[in-house]
Amino acid sequence: MTSLRALGFSLSLMLSTSAVIAAPVLRADITVSAPVVTVGDMFEDAGVLAEQPLFRSPLPGTTGNVDLNAVRSATARIGLTQFDVNGLSQVRVSRAASIVDQTLLADLITQDLRHRGILGEGMTANMLFTNAPEAITVAASATPASLVSLRYLPGNGTFSARFSLSGVNQSLDLSGSIEISIDAPHLAAGLPAGTVLRPEHIIMRPMPIQQADAQGIATIDQLVGMSLNRQSRDGMLLRASDVSTPLSIAKNDPVTIYYRQGLMTLTVKGQAVTGAAEGAPLQVLNLMSKRVISATAIAPGAVEVSNGPVTLAGL
User: Which of 12, 65, 148, 246 is the most buried if burial means most Cβ atoms within 10 Å?
Assistant: First the structure.
């Protein structure tokens, strides 16, 4: 008998608990991202009816109030008649949204230009739209906009583009112009002629690619370790013609003149009449004979004469 009473109590408790679980509770304030509001959006503990649609969501980025009678009418259509109103007379329903602005649209065009190989390393595209709105509110999405097509004319820099927007049936057509810039090397400070350039001497600044092409800018690899040909001002654009291989021997430097023939090596003191980079020709004064001879710079302070016996006799 005691076991029957215990069983009856357990069944009663289970039925009571089941009844509590079966009663969804109305929410006071909800935010949805889909175009329809479901039972699971409106109620806590919605159960098996959670995915059932009730009514359309407000427009993205907007909020509306749904009164209790409208909720009862919507739930009755799907067979949900018993729920806890939670003391509410209405429910505040908001629709999440994403914002599409000119920055996002310009980024999509830039990505396409890079994919095509039009934009290379160190290059940027500056977009000027002729008819783009400041911002567009669209349905919340990880991809609020995508580029459908792009027509770009490099000759005059004009473009026309078509975009699709999240939750919007109509495409967005835009046009404008694109100015492509490239990072170009400039001097960080004024430097005297003969300065051997180091990375800290150079700063990169964007400039229109047409101007860069016309002026013939140099790459960093063409500049670092090279010597400035003339005194240069702060901010000057650096071109390949502005630098040359650093002098191994400068004018008036003391040098040792070498002549080698077989196992024989002769040396004599001299003075550079002209400067030269390593491996380049220069004029050297033989301090013993007081004659100017032609030689080749082989190292700092060292030149080599290799013209044969006639030159040797002149040493």
Answer: 246
Single-letter residue type at 216: G
Pick the CATH number of 182-244 from 3.40.50.1240, 3.90.1210.10, 3.40.50.300, 3.20.20.140: 3.90.1210.10
Place of tokens 């739209």: 129
Contact 109, 129 (CB under 8 A): no
For the stretch 253-292, what's the b/e string if a residue is b when 16 or more beta carbons lie within 10 angstroms of its beta carbon?
bebebbbeeeeeeeebebebebbbeeeeebbbbbeeeeee
DSSP 3-state assignment of 50?
A: coil
pTM of the model: 0.65
pLDDT in tens, the chain (315 residues): 444 454 444 445 444 444 445 589 999 999 999 999 999 999 999 989 999 999 999 999 999 999 999 999 999 999 998 999 999 999 999 999 999 999 999 999 999 999 999 999 889 999 999 987 889 999 999 999 999 999 999 889 999 999 999 999 999 999 999 999 999 999 999 999 889 999 999 999 999 988 888 888 888 889 999 999 899 999 999 998 899 888 888 899 999 999 988 788 889 999 999 988 888 899 999 999 999 999 999 998 999 997 654 444 455
The stretches of 130-200 forming alpha helices (DSSP H) are none
